[in-house]
Amino acid sequence: MMKNLTKTLLIILFFSLTPLLPADEIKFQELSDSLVKEVLSKIKSNKVVFLGLVPANPNRMDVFSGTLSNMFASKLREGKFIFPDEKELIEVKNKLGINRYNGFINAEFAKEVAKNLGSEIVVTGRIMDLGENIYINFQVFNGVTGDISAILEKEIKKDDKISYLLQTAVEMPRFNLPEDYLSLKREVHFPYDILDFEISDIDNDGINDFIALTPSYIRIFHLDAAFEEIMSFPYSVNTDIKIRSREKIGHIFITDLNHNGKKEIALSSFQDDGGEVFEWNEGKFQKIADLNDKIVAGTGEKPYAFLLLSSFLGGRNYYSGEAVKYLQADSMGELQFSDIYLPVDFYSLAMIAPDRSKEKKWCVLDNNGSLTVFDIDKKKIWQSGDMFGNYFESIDFDDSGRPELVMTSNEPVTKESFDYIYILEWNEIGPVLLWKSPKIEGSILKFHPGDIDNNKRMEFVAITRKGEKNYIQVYGIK
Fold first, then answer.
1. Measuring CA to CA, which residue among 240, 237, 203 is closest to residue 222?
2. What integer pLDDT is reported at residue 102 of this predicted model?
3. Whether the predicted pLDDT of 463 surpasses 90
4. Among 358, 325, 360, 324, which Cα is nearest to 344's?
5. Mean pLDDT across 163-188
6. SS3 helix, strand, coil % of the chain, rounded to 5?
7. Tens digits of per-residue pLDDT, 48-104?
8. More confident residue, 73 or 468
9. pTM, whole model, 2 decimals?
10. Dihedral of the CA atoms 134, 171, 355, 160 (nearest 10)?
11. What is the pLDDT of residue 304?
């Protein structure tokens, strides 16, 4: 995917992303839709600072207030939000005393906020608990003059569910990760064009291998000081296949589809009609399956016992949501396919339990570069307005049982490009930015966790393209 540059600046000082709560129970969607329509009718600029909704108890962010604030912010940005620099936000907040923000500001304060953050409109909000009802107030300020251009008010009846959410405090994420949380330990030039990689002891010799999917060949390395290639073997290619992007797409997964304890390599590339599965047997790899569709994801614990399949959409370099299939083997080892309809086309996806509910959800990086979350029945419950690179991983860095989402930036891939790594953590109102890396030279193509150094510690391993060369970068985790 060509990583798209966004066109609109919207800075949110309370929370940055939207929630994971049942819209059918609280009607947040309808409420936020009506609010944003009224606010947008008063806004004539695309440079907006939304200071957030102050909760009913200003000393504690509750789930209801945080959820509504985030849904409102998401509606405002309409897919054009870019991550503000966290340090800059903290400096501006400290300078202007935003830690004392109570939902109401004067003209001078509005002008200072707009001036410091390069905006033309400032929106504030406050929620008040009136007993039987909830009162919501928005004010829209002209950032140049400081004048109030609109006051918007809503009053809704408080039911048992809303009462419970007002009493439930948001668990705050860990904002104290050091700047060098991921630190580059070493970098190795990779001499081949690379589509994807995995880290696993594929040949069961007690040493984790670097398994690279390159055009036409799977290449297996020991990533030691000598960076030794220990074997390679070809897979099927079809030179007639064309995609409209110059980017070469491929996926490789370590699986155990047959549930026999033997690791397999499942792969698809831009040159495949579908996918292939190879099993390590008696010192060599043997093909055990040809698939008609491309392999796009694995599910469950590694090695994956289940795979998700799809196909490129009309020659594009992203996949069709309508063509998703679920692949598993029965007790006799026969492959079984089930159709799964996803309502969006996508670059990558995962089925994970990202929050404390432990309920599996579909996390999809759609063909617009937005991260979208569906429940197990494919009902959309959250969507970012942010644009990301075309790949993400779910990694439980701290073994908490609640995985973090790792994304890259949406900067365009050029010879002089640079990239960032983002780590997002989930709380009751959705994912929030936990950590952002310093600027990384080049463009990150793929990344995975793994014990690449065989030291019983997980590293973060990335393939980064700098100009015309690819590099393996190994990051330590602090």
1. 203
2. 67
3. yes
4. 324
5. 77
6. 15, 40, 45
7. 777 777 887 777 777 777 777 766 766 665 534 333 444 555 666 667 666 556 667
8. 468
9. 0.71
10. -30
11. 81
Burial of 154 (0-12, 13-18, 19+ CB in 10 A): middle
- Please check whether residue 271 is in contact with residue 238, taking contact to mean a CB–CB distance below 8 angstroms: yes
Which residues, 6 or more positions from 416, have their beta carbon under 8 angstroms from its beta carbon? Answer: none
Q: Are the C-beta atoms of 139 and 394 separated by less than 8 Å?
A: no
Ranges of beta strands (E only) in 114-164 are: 121-129, 133-142, 148-157
| Nearest CA among 267, 264, 287, 289 for reference residue 204 | 264
Is-contact 339 355, C-beta < 8 A?
A: no
Helix locations, 2-101, DSSP H:
23-26, 28-40, 63-77, 86-96
Residues making up the chain, counted from first to last: 478
Q: How many whole angstroms separate alpha carbon 446 and alpha carbon 134?
A: 46
The residue among 261, 338, 349, 259 whose CA lies nearest residue 298 is: 349
* Sequence-ordered list of residues with C-beta below 8 angstroms from that of 406, at least 6 positions apart, any chain: 392, 393, 394, 395, 421, 422, 423, 424, 447
Q: Which helix (H) or strand (E) holds 114?
A: helix 107-117
Q: Which helix (H) or strand (E) holds 161?
A: helix 160-167
**Strand duo 418-419 + 443-450: pairing:** unpaired
**Alpha helix segments (H runs only) across 331-437:** none
Determine contact, residues 243/249, Cβ cutoff 8 Å: yes
Instruction: Among 357-361, 414-418, 442-446, name the one with the lowest average pLDDT.
Output: 414-418
Where would I find the beta strands (DSSP E) of 147-301?
Answer: 148-157, 182-190, 196-200, 209-214, 217-222, 228-234, 250-255, 264-269, 275-281, 284-291, 294-299
* Tens-digit pLDDT profile for residues 100-125: 566 677 888 888 888 887 788 888 88
- 205's CB contacts (< 8 A; 6+ apart) are none
CA dist 191 and 279 (Å) reads 26
Residue with tokens 């400290």: 94
What lies within 8 Å, CB to CB, of 206 at 6+ separation is: none
Task: Please give the structure tokens belonging to residue 102.
Answer: 């109570």
Nearby residues of 283 by Cβ (< 8 Å), 6 or more positions away:
none
Calculate the average pLDDT of the chain: 78
Rounded-to-integer distance, Cα 266 and Cα 369, Å: 25
Share of the chain above pLDDT 70, in %: 78
CB atoms < 10 A from the CB of 421, how many? 21
Q: Tell me phi and psi for residue 47, to 5 degrees.
A: -105, 95
